[in-house]
Write a structure and sequence with these properties.
The protein has 51 residues and is α+β, with helices and mostly antiparallel strands. It has one domain. It is built from two helices and four strands; from the N terminus they run αβαβββ. Strand 3 and strand 4 form a beta hairpin. The radius of gyration is 11 Å and the shape is flat. The two termini are 15 Å apart. The relative contact order is 0.26.
Length: 51
């Protein structure tokens, strides 16, 4: 999943997210490097997304 890759390495995506049954948010498990600062937001298609 490309959204998860913006945060870290995607590990798992829930069924509703992967099938598109839920479009208002995504539930993704990601692995992050805790030695680097954590993201609080990012931009996708010109829209600011908060984590």
């Amino acid at each position: 999943m490309k959204i998860g890759q913006r945060i870290g390495k995607s590990i798992r995506v829930d069924h509703a997210t992967s099938t598109g049954a839920r479009s208002d948010y995504a539930r993704v498990c990601v692995q992050v490097d805790i030695t680097k600062p954590l993201l609080s937001q990012f931009t996708i298609h010109g829209k600011k997304c908060f984590i």
